[in-house]
Amino acid sequence: MEQYENRINLTPEIATKLKENVSLRIGTFMNYIVPNPIGVERDGLKKWTKHEKMHIGDFAKFNQKDDENSYYAINLISVPNISIDTLKLGLFLFHRALCKGKWQFVFSLLEEDVRNSLFGEERYLYIGKPSLKNSLSFAMPIKSLPTMLKDNNVHLTSSDLTSSLKTLYDYGFITLTPISTEHCIKTDIPEINTKCVYIDLNLGAVTAKINGRWKLQKTF
């Protein structure tokens, strides 16, 4: 199998430097990944919803009082123009969140788990400033999302997977952050795109009933 550094287009020289010098790596304790902000305008929500707070994925206004039901599935399948691939991916992520009891994940987008010394520190990847309560760390290996999907009979090409993740982001179901140099504190280091992503599921999509909030679609 092709070496990981080749698959992410790193030269042998840069790969050696990263393996030997932790201060040059991304996702370390000192040079942690800065997640993309949650409360920003999403293209899909802006296009298909009227309420301005919904444009940034703030679904709290529509929480059902004293209601412990989950509305994630009905919210997802009601999204205008959602593809079958995106629907499958969204349901898989929700199922994994329920099974694991957490709403944040890091996945490899390659068809292999990622075990390496090119990023992270002491086999951990750090998300957010470690001194803050909402900071997270993820142990290697980083699981392959395409492989997990295939194991559950969900087959997406690399381009379809990327497109489906973007759609889930655009409709506020997840916040997506690539594990790359541009998302770190220090950027004056070798550029690397790990082909891994940090995914934060929007809990509001579970507790709020928004399936009736979409603008009406035209029918022909």
Question: Concise description?
Answer:
By secondary structure, the protein is of the alpha+beta class.
Explained architecture:
- The protein has 8 helices and 5 strands; from the N terminus they run αααααβββααββα.
- α5 (84-100) packs across α7 (158-170).
- With 220 residues, it is an alpha+beta fold.
- β2 and β3 form a beta hairpin.
Count the E strands. Answer: 5
Report strand %.
5-15%
Largest sheet: 3 strands, antiparallel
Shape: globular
Query: Can you count the helices?
Result: 8
Alpha-carbon distance between the two ends: 50 Å
Biggest sheet: strand arrangement: 1-5-4
Radius of gyration: 19 Å
Enumerate the spans where pLDDT stays under 50 for 5 or more consecutive residues: none
Class derived from helix and strand content: alpha+beta
Q: Give the helices and strands as they follow along the chain.
A: HHHHHEEEHHEEH
Mean pLDDT reading = 91
Relative helix content: 25-40%
Q: Topology of this protein?
A:
Elements: H1 4-7, H2 12-20, H3 43-48, H4 72-77, H5 84-100, E1 104-108, E2 124-127, E3 136-139, H6 145-151, H7 158-170, E4 174-180, E5 193-201, H8 204-207
Antiparallel strand pairs: 1-5, 2-3, 4-5
